[in-house]
Amino acid sequence: MLIHAARLLRDRGTPISVTIVGDGPSSSELMAMAAGLDVEFVGRIDDRVLVATIMAESAVIVAPSPFETFGLSVVEALASGTPVVVPHIGAGQELVAPGCGVVAPFSAAGFAVAIEQVLAWDRDSTRATCRDHAVHYSWDRTGASLLDFYDETIRIGQRSVA
Q: Is-contact 83 101, C-beta < 8 A?
């Protein structure tokens, strides 16, 4: 999806540089699709500091997977001060607040428009907004929210049995 969006942006006169972190069984196919574009495949990175640096130096993080269960990479991007683009399906959409990113239609065109929107934002104020929003997803807060959810679910279950 991101590679197709990068091609659309280039064709519209908005070329972008893309760094893809991670690897998988489709890496070779993705590399072939990216031919002629400014796309760098860096593979898996185990150095957390390097990953954080890449995130912080990026203008936008695109998390195109609709299969995120929590969206840790989205929270990490926000904590680094980098806005995100996520699909309108999956967990990522629940993590994006106004000024922190864009929830895009799950299509290359949708992602291209969303990337353009984020790139037009004021970088300094956006970074501050992202960092402020990421605080809501600390491990302590997330754990407490999950426990509250379980407690409420148990209470509801007990009322329906009685």
A: yes
